[in-house]
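Quick illustration, no need to memorize.
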Amino acid sequence: MLLISLVLSGGLLLGILILGWWFRRGLMSLLGWSGVASCGLVSVGILAPPFIWCLALLPSFSHLEAPDLDGIGGQAYGLYYDLYPTVILYYAAHWLVFVLMLLILSYTFPSSTAMNVSDFLIWIRRKISGIENIELIFLAVATALCVVYFTAIGWDRLIYSPMARFERSIGVDVLLDGLSRIIIFFALALGVCSSILILISSKPLTAALSVIICSLPFIPLASRGFSVLICSAYLAYAFRFRGLGRMAALVIFPVFASVLLLLPLIMRGLEYTGFVAMKDAGLSMIGDLKGNFTLSRLLSPVLANMSQGFPVLVDVFVQSENGPVLADVPFGYIWRSFSPTLSFIDGFSTTWVEFNPRVNAFTPFNTVAELYGLNPVFSISFIATVYTVVTLMIRRLTGRGIKGALVALVLLALMAVSLFQLQQYQTRTFMRVIYLILLVGGSGLFLFPRQIQGRLNNRDAKK
């Protein structure tokens, strides 16, 4: 059944890729480059997790009754392999409704002519090269964020601390703790921008230093944000090379990325955090792989962790056979999951988070599972509607000149974050990013007027 699920999920992805390539001209004409990029992100974000999970399980195919891959805390889940095809088709239903809604609305309400992507990239390169010492500016901002963050949570958390990942340090009040959580978001955004700067800057080492500094706040959290930033910097440097150098760097990248993505997962199993935990996790990983190294032993845990939303939903399907899975969840938890208010207003993090439904003691429901627990049809309709609205917003922004295109680029990045959270986190966390997307996108549509002629966009690009 695992092989059937692997072929089914892989066939869906491959089929969509072929269809997208076959109708690429029509899609570009209807959706523009930003709409196509958004549609591609949603397609991968919804349909890739089942394929990745089945791929991760493949090395343990010979003993599926006791797979090597366990859930958070060591409790296995997703063992009902006969349900895999059903859940894969359920994922596909979300994608199909999204695509149909998007195509119908895009055809019925066409947007103004969008800026050509090549003109947009040329404009960005010119603007960045025109700012003196932009690398030093990024470095200064990254340093300031890092200093404020560790001043808020305590500098000991960077080196060694016996505290848990999300435990608040003694003496740190609620406001400082809230500030540190906001800084994390800006550090990630600045780190990604610094990685892009590595690719086009004349001072790539300074930009790389900014990435490293932006990654430091993620170390006490044992977060994959550290891994993502370092990997993005690696890729940016790889594309600065040409020929064999670039090819060699790209060949090494999967192993490099797997090691970095696995490191935070091992750190989470330790009872302390900081650089000391990172060092010990690295030594532990080397010890486990030494003398018995296989690529699957390195890749499988990483792939499984990236796609664990799929087996969670499989277990929720099983639970639903015994009745509504959210029957014991109070309505207060449900409506607060969709509420845009902060926790200190609605009390979610102090009172209601304990009602988060789980498939086992260590593994909570993700967004797709919670929405399925409410109603399967509602889940499909809600997710398809959310991403259709966001994609149409991104498409319209690219018809609002250079500034609109920049906002669209920000929304594409936020959309990628939301798709990850759709599979990994609860509805409340997912909705936070969606509200941010709607706020930023709505502000862009309000502030930047519609272009009268499409060629005005190209004129903006030449300024």
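Residues 2-117+307-461 form one domain.
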